[in-house]
Design brief:
By secondary structure, the protein is an alpha/beta fold. Helix content is 36%, strand content 27%. This is Thioredoxin.
Length: 105
């Protein structure tokens, strides 16, 4: 499954209407956000269809960021059946993200 870019307008459809979703709140100027992008690509290849990965550009979509209390980026929030169930802030390794996701599958 490919990583999906989500906007304020498509957030409820793409995230809240799905099973388990890892949402990356990021911005193009953010160094750690650029570092985590390839980690998310690898993770997406490994976990396949079991978890959807979505990205929200906080510069373009401030409503979603403020709605979920995103203060610094990257912030990754795990949603399960539309509800936020876990949150990590800052660069994470692939193994760390797998550990977070394993708690919610």
């Amino acid at each position: 499954m490919a990583i999906v870019n989500v906007s304020d307008q498509s957030f409820s459809t793409e995230v809240e209407g799905s099973g388990t979703v890892l949402v990356d709140f990021w911005a193009p100027w953010c160094g750690p956000c650029k570092m985590i992008a390839p980690v998310l690509e690898e993770l997406d290849k490994e976990i396949g269809d079991s978890v959807k990965i979505a990205k929200v550009n906080v510069d373009d979509n401030p409503e979603s960021a403020s709605r979920f209390g995103v203060m610094s980026i990257p912030t990754l929030i795990v949603f399960k059946d539309g509800q936020p169930v876990d949150k990590v802030v800052g660069f994470q390794s692939k193994d760390a993200l797998k550990n977070v996701l394993s708690r919610h599958q």
